[in-house]
Give the backbone structure.
Amino acid sequence: MQVQDRELGECLRSWRERVTPPEVGLPAGATRRVPGLRREEVAQLAGVSLDYLARLEQGRAVNPSPSVVGALARTLRLTAVERAHLFRLAGHAEPGSGAISRHIPPAVQRLLERLSDVPVMVFDATTQLLAANDLARALVGDFSARSERDRNIAWRHFTGGPGLVLRNEAEARDMDEQMVGDLRDAVSRYPTDEPLARLVEDLLAASPRFQELWQRHAVNRRAASRKTFMHPEVGPITLDCDVLVVQGSDLRVIIYTPVLGSHDADSLALLAAIGLQSFVG
């Protein structure tokens, strides 16, 4: 076993042990025998297999992919310096200025936890869902077990993936144009980002509608809007959708809020009481 492989495993174990369950939305429990998170909890939150994480921690697996490294960095609440160190240990250069940073800073993680009474999600510039709080998962479904591609909103939108948002024909056309314009803007700002390039190529091959709009070369970015979700348990919920860009990165924090005192506010409160179910997002 090389020193670098052993260092990678030791860092992962050490960082796992310092993260408390409440920090990632898990109950602390009174019978825990280990400090911090269990290995299976990290594996589930990061979207990797338990066996693979065990082999990484034991130095028996080397060179995890950049997407796995990024997911582990987010789950373990690493700082920017720690994240860069983890990328180097895994044999990768830290994503540079021409690539999208998918690291969620600890402050944004805390924002997800504190805003527990409204749905909150975090996306990168490719519309990839990186994180969501409990109420967001209750609203649109739990994406954590889905494939990396299936967690991309643009991919699901243009390839006919199921969704809960109600749109008329004009709103659907507008959403098509906004998503394509947003991705074209991202391509110009992140010319060396490989996941973004693969997403665009795959969308061009899979969706005639995407191809048609992409050839128009329109550039725009999505703004705030209102969305109506048809929830299978509580019915329609209309929410304001605000997009906040994290300073120093291109992460988008999406916050959904109801009008105070409205029927939608009551429905959202009911949804919070019902909790997370296996709904289709």
